[in-house]
Write a structure and sequence with these properties.
The complex is a heterodimer.
Chain A: E1 3-6, E2 10-14, E3 19-21, E4 23-26, E5 31-38, E6 44-50, E7 56-58, E8 64-68, E9 73-78, E10 87-95, E11 102-104, E12 108-113
Parallel strand pairs in A: 2-12
Antiparallel strand pairs in A: 1-4, 3-9, 5-6, 5-10, 7-8, 8-9, 10-11, 10-12
Chain B: E1 4-7, E2 10-13, E3 19-25, E4 30-38, E5 44-51, E6 57-58, E7 67-73, E8 76-81, E9 90-98, E10 105-107, E11 111-115
Parallel strand pairs in B: 2-11
Antiparallel strand pairs in B: 1-3, 3-8, 4-5, 4-9, 5-6, 7-8, 9-10, 9-11
Chain lengths: 114, 116
């Protein structure tokens, strides 16, 4: 079975400051890794994904994430945040075997202050 | 990108009635669809996985008789909440994946169910 841990439930940050949202996972099989953003009363929007290859993944809206296999982490970063980045962010893993179920972390609320 | 549409986006129903939520893949064939439930300020919890033409696989603790899932075609899956109660009020989200080896699932916009 796989699991996902998002270490911070809330991250307040000032506008134009850098931010890192942390994600650690555990799995007995290889996995694919994702970050999603959710705005209130909406579905999920994919920010970026790691399937294979380069461990540094760039996504939409200036976000990037780095896959660290030894630390089983997939932290999300942005060098300069905007007010519009205020949302809920979910880290997710999909196991690379039968069923391809996706399991989500508990979510991190990013709150960007002016 | 691929589009998954959920309908309705919100619904209010009386306690004891049944509600059907539709999930459609608009521009691809969804071999597998997933249904999630999300309580306020919480994460998405996987309820079940459905493959076209076969019975859904439910996660532990999910009542299959209460949450009926049908995946009769490659573009449509439905979730029916039977005999709904106020505790069933939640945000329900579906996702769909194309093919067996494709890794990314695309999400619908969600359905807000309120049972009064």
């Amino acid at each position: 079975a796989q699991s996902v841990t998002q270490l911070d439930s809330q991250v307040p940050v000032f506008e134009e400051a850098p931010v890192e949202l942390r994600c650690n996972y555990s799995s007995s099989v290889s996995v694919y890794l994702f970050w999603y953003v959710q705005y209130p009363n909406q579905g999920l929007q994919l920010l970026l994904k790691y399937l294979s290859g380069s461990t540094l993944v760039k996504g939409i809206n200036g976000f990037e994430a780095e896959f660290n296999k030894s630390q089983t982490s997939f932290h999300l970063r942005k060098p300069s945040v905007h007010i519009s980045d205020t949302a809920e962010y979910f880290c997710a893993v999909t196991r690379n075997t039968g069923g391809f179920k996706t399991i989500f972390g508990a979510g991190t609320r990013l709150f960007v202050k002016a | 990108g691929a589009v998954v549409s959920q309908h309705p986006s919100w619904v209010i129903c009386k306690s004891g009635t049944s509600v059907k939520i539709e999930c459609r893949s608009l521009d691809f064939q969804a071999t597998t669809m997933f249904w999630y439930r999300q309580f306020p300020k919480q994460s998405l919890m996987l309820m079940a996985t459905s493959n076209e033409g076969s019975k859904a696989t439910y996660e532990q603790g999910v009542e299959k008789d209460k949450f009926l899932i049908n995946h009769a075609s490659l573009t449509l899956s439905t979730l029916t909440v039977t005999s709904a109660h106020p505790e069933d009020s939640s945000f329900y989200i579906c996702s769909a994946r194309e093919g067996q080896m494709n890794t990314e699932a695309f999400f619908g916009q969600g359905t807000r169910l309120t049972v009064v």
